[in-house]
Specification:
The protein has 159 residues and is α+β, with helices and mostly antiparallel strands. Helix content is 39%, strand content 21%. The protein has a three-stranded mixed sheet with strand order 5-6-7. Strands 1-2 form a two-stranded antiparallel ribbon. A two-stranded antiparallel ribbon has the order 3-4.
């Protein structure tokens, strides 16, 4: 809605802020889907305002995306759970002030869901920083981040 002022027409500030938040939320879904394509080639955003999962085509995870100033983790994880069906619910959050580097966003889930996964995949070795990418790995093990980047680079060359 436009309002007349001595300086001309101006847009309603509340409407502009609401539109900005919706756009930021949709953009956040989009950059997360693009990031996840490293592991799930068909990851895609569900689009703005759609009910259900925010990121589609990931067979084992139900991802709820949040790009908000407020922090309501219990409500968000409950929302993710209600959309999960038989998938693992997870919330990915873009905090205020964060750009579009998805690797720096926060992700959370219930400890009861996390610990069985960690126990299965995390060796009892001491974690170290990978000399290639700076991510975490374990001594004597391949870095999963570097391996996925190399696989993606190989796939891109052969395409």
């Amino acid at each position: 809605m436009l309002h007349s002022t001595p300086l001309g027409h101006v847009r309603n500030a509340t409407q502009s802020m609401a539109n900005h938040r919706k756009h930021r939320g949709y953009r956040t879904q989009k950059v997360i889907a693009e990031y996840l394509k490293q592991w799930w080639a068909y990851a895609d955003t569900a689009g703005a305002g759609r009910q259900g999962e925010d990121i589609l085509n990931i067979p084992t995870l139900s991802i709820e995306v949040k790009a908000r100033a407020d922090f309501q983790p219990l409500a968000w994880i409950k929302q993710a759970q209600s959309n999960a069906a038989n998938k693992l619910p997870i919330v990915i959050m873009r905090c205020n002030g964060q750009g579009e580097d998805v690797s720096q966003y926060l992700a959370f889930m219930k400890v009861g869901d996390l610990m069985p996964l960690l126990y299965q995949v995390v060796p009892t070795d001491v974690p170290i920083r990978c000399s290639g990418c700076g991510g975490w790995t374990f001594e004597g093990k391949d870095c999963l981040v570097c391996r996925s980047m190399n696989t993606n680079a190989s796939n891109a060359k052969s395409a």
